[in-house]
Design a protein that fits this description.
Layout lengths: L1 H12 L3 H12 L6 H13 L7 H7 L8 H14 L1 H7 L5 H11 L5 H12 L10 H4 L17 E6 L2 E6 L2 H11 L18 H12 L4 E4 L9 H16 L3 E6 L9 H13 L6 E4 L4 H13 L3 E4 L21 H12 L9 E4 L11 E5 L13 E3 L1 H11 L4 E5 L6 H10 L6 E5 L2 E3 L6 H10 L13 H7 L3 H11 L6 E3 L1 H15 L2 E2 L1 E2 L2 E6 L9 E5 L9 E5 L3 E5 L20 E3 L4 E10 L5 E10 L9 E2 L6 E8 L27 E9 L11 E4 L3 E5 L9 E6 L9
Parallel strand pairs: 3-4, 4-5, 10-11, 12-13, 14-26, 16-22, 20-23, 24-28
Antiparallel strand pairs: 1-2, 6-7, 7-8, 8-9, 15-25, 16-19, 17-18, 20-21, 21-22, 24-25, 26-27, 27-28
Length: 727
């Protein structure tokens, strides 16, 4: 059984048949016996892709014939335990035993890991050093408090466990530098598992290194047919961040191969969002830049017998078990003539395609390389009526731009074999495709088609409606780019798909905005308060710190007159248990003003609603300390404030088992509340769209682009604290 497992792993991880037969011989003769030896053997084979393998050198590299005795293991573990004896006695069973096993393994590379573990347990445990476990040993080790890192220097990275985030102090760049240990070095593509080596591979890699100088090159290749969303933020951070972390460059390449859906506004918005997140592309390119070269290569693929013109309809070749094409074996000359006819517009849309001769990992057979589309292209006009597909374009554009690491989401793993196949079929430089997990968010939809439905129904205003999780919407709502990058860092560089709660993104926003957003005061539901003994003939101005925790960051002036406005909810006619704000017989302080006010008279309208309070004031330094201080405004600006909640009621609005009526039936009727006559202190008067403030006691707010002279509009980004009901 063990030999069978090794054979299976070798076949799955090594695609070169010549070297595979060499390796199988060692496994079958039981000269390679462990996974450790197999990994070393695979590493050796990948490092020597073309030359005949030196058997004796190979055997030394993977421990063939090396025999580790029980006595050697006992001695190695004894030496390691002796080195850590003092720490073991101090920490007992809370000590990290993996450290001992790792050090023992480093002394005896080919020793069996299970045998080492058993020996460590024996020497440390009940038989020797520590004896049986006590009650104290069984208690969980207390977590040591770590100093919170500076926000600018560190971002909290995390492992996602059961939808929650376990934080560590590791920046995204540090994570991506760590990924470099797993990824191949530029020019060593052949060491990657599954990479196909041809007789020309090494010469092509040599040319590649001469062009790039060994520099890491990545690319971010969005389709310009929609707006980027929160999932794209991870892709941007991964591609641009990996290049930056490893001294490389990243291209922004528009995958503009579908002229029916592409619009100029999407090109502009995509670049804006990349730069908003803090990244500058090394170059901005388009798949259409390479249409001539891609067409030339398509002709070459036909000449090599690796592609053919097919007339099956789209519906015939959909799915995983379509019937084989009856035109698969048509003569090369015939396919060349027909492909030229496709280019000249002699076939209607859907009447002919160019297909490649290969079977992909997911069983899909002969993917389409070119199709007919009589739609003018935004850059090439009417020059072409045939356009290449993603399966054909992606790897060849990577090859042209000498990308070293083609980073894409997990769903493209099924296309990895076609990626390698096509480059090798044309004898061009072949980059390496690496996959990572998608980032998804609950309580939202991000598909272009569904957002268009939301817009058409009037559920949202446009792609940048602040209730959506497109990047333009998040910017409009007031999320700082640093918060989005920090969120991506917390999710981490995972291979598994991560589905996160929105409150985790909101927590990242609070951290950044607490450091960036100056304070102001605003009242959403105003109640007029008249100070009957106002002390000054001329209204004074109050100095309010922009950041109360750090007054060195400046102050702003706020008018203070005999008429002020407070929140309706900060006054009650009767004092209830636990209530600390303004009430008859219960004064409160006015934040930053240096005065305490006490109710003298309550004025009501005909229906009995309180419309005004008359109060007296006393300087704070002589008044009894009040139970609470409240915010207020005087001579305020009248503004519109938009308060947002989740757009959908359920976590997975697209899941028919959770929302049988479809996502459009799951809209939250309270996702937007507009306060049209909120009062905000005049310190915000000069603010411009996207400027951010903390309205004291209310939350973080951002100036909306709808703002006009005389009427500012604010969007609430997040509340000051997380709502426990949303966690």
């Amino acid at each position: 059984k063990a030999t069978g497992t090794l054979l299976y792993n070798a076949a799955a991880r090594l695609k070169d048949p010549k070297h595979l037969s060499f390796l199988v011989g060692y496994i079958a003769r039981r000269e390679i016996l462990t996974d450790l030896q197999l990994s070393a053997a695979l590493e050796y084979v990948r490092s020597h892709p073309l030359e005949p393998l030196d058997a004796s050198d190979f055997e030394r590299a993977c421990g063939v014939g090396v025999c580790i005795t029980p006595e050697q293991i006992e001695e190695a573990v004894e030496a390691v335990v002796s080195e850590h004896r003092a720490e073991l006695l101090a920490e007992r069973y809370h000590f990290n035993m993996g450290l001992l096993m790792g050090e023992a393994r480093s002394r005896l590379r080919w020793a069996d890991g299970k045998t080492i573990k058993n020996e460590v347990d024996l020497q440390v445990g009940a038989v020797h050093l520590l004896g049986p476990k006590t009650e104290a040993d069984l208690e969980k080790k207390p977590k040591t408090a770590k100093a919170r890192p500076a926000l600018v220097e560190k971002q909290k990275a995390a492992v996602v466990e059961n939808g929650e985030v376990v934080t560590e102090t590791q920046s995204l760049l540090e994570q991506l530098r760590g990924e470099a240990l797993k990824f191949h070095k530029p020019g060593e593509n052949y060491k990657t598992e599954g990479y196909v080596v041809t007789p020309n591979t090494m010469a092509l890699l040599k040319q590649h290194l001469a062009i790039t100088g060994g520099q890491v090159r990545t690319r971010f290749p969005p389709e310009p047919n929609g707006i980027l969303h929160i999932g794209h933020a991870k892709a941007i951070n991964f591609n641009f961040g990996y290049a930056k972390a490893n001294g490389g460059v990243c291209f922004l390449r528009y995958d503009d191969t579908n002229p029916e859906k592409e619009e100029e506004k999407y090109f502009t918005a995509i670049r804006e969002m990349v730069e908003w997140l803090g990244y500058q592309p090394y170059a901005v390119t388009h798949a259409s830049d390479y249409f001539d070269q891609l067409y030339t290569w398509a002709l070459e693929l036909i000449r090599r017998g690796q592609a053919y013109v097919c007339h099956q309809k789209v519906e015939e070749i959909k799915g995983h078990n379509p019937p084989p094409s009856p035109w698969r074996d048509r003569p090369v000359e015939e396919s060349l003539l027909l492909f030229e006819d496709m280019r000249k517009g002699k076939f209607g849309e859907g009447e002919a395609t160019l297909r490649m001769k290969l079977v992909m990992e997911d069983g899909k057979m002969d993917p389409v390389a070119y199709r007919v589309k009589f739609t003018p292209h935004h850059r090439t006009g009417d020059k072409w009526c045939i356009y290449p597909t993603y399966d054909y374009t992606h790897c060849l554009c990577d090859s042209i731009e000498h990308i070293t690491h083609s980073l894409c989401t997990k769903e493209f793993q099924a296309r990895r074999s076609s990626y390698f196949w096509l480059c090798n079929a044309l004898d061009v430089y072949c980059p390496v495709q690496w996959e990572y997990g998608r980032l998804n968010l609950l309580y939202t939809v991000v598909s272009k088609r569904k957002i268009i439905q939301l817009v058409e129904k009037g559920a949202v205003r446009d792609w940048d409606d602040p209730r959506l999780f497109t990047l333009t919407a998040l910017r409009r709502r007031g999320f700082p780019p640093e918060a989005i990058n920090n969120f991506c860092a917390r999710v981490g560089v995972t291979v598994a798909q991560a589905t996160m709660e929105p409150h985790l993104l909101e927590a990242c926003a609070r951290e950044v905005l607490n450091e960036q957003a100056p304070r102001a005061m605003a009242v959403l539901e105003p109640l007029k308060v008249t100070i009957t003994n106002f002390p000054a003939l001329k209204a004074p101005e109050v100095l309010v710190p922009n950041f109360p925790a750090d007054e060195s960051r400046g102050f702003h002036k706020v008018p203070f007159q005999s008429t002020v406005y407070i929140e309706e909810t900060d006054f009650r006619e009767e004092v209830e248990k636990g209530y600390k704000r303004l009430a008859p017989g219960q004064p409160v302080g006015l934040r930053h003003a240096g005065y305490v006010i006490a109710v003298q008279n309550i004025i009501k309208d005909a229906s009995g609603c309180v419309i005004e309070l008359e109060v007296t004031c006393t300087k704070s330094d002589v008044a009894e300390k009040p139970k609470a201080f409240i915010h207020w405004v005087s001579e305020p600006l009248t503004c519109e404030v938009r308060l947002y909640e989740r757009l959908f009621l359920h976590k997975n609005p697209e899941d028919s088992s959770e929302v049988p009526g479809g996502f459009l039936s799951d809209l939250n009727p309270d996702s937007l509340r507009i306060v049209r006559n909120a009062l905000v202190d005049s310190s915000v008067l000069s603010a411009r769209p996207f400027d951010k403030f903390q309205f004291e006691r209310l939350g973080y707010f951002s100036v909306d682009p709808d703002s006009e002279d005389g009427k500012m509009v604010f969007n609430r980004t997040v509340t000051l604290k997380e709502d426990p009901g949303k966690a």
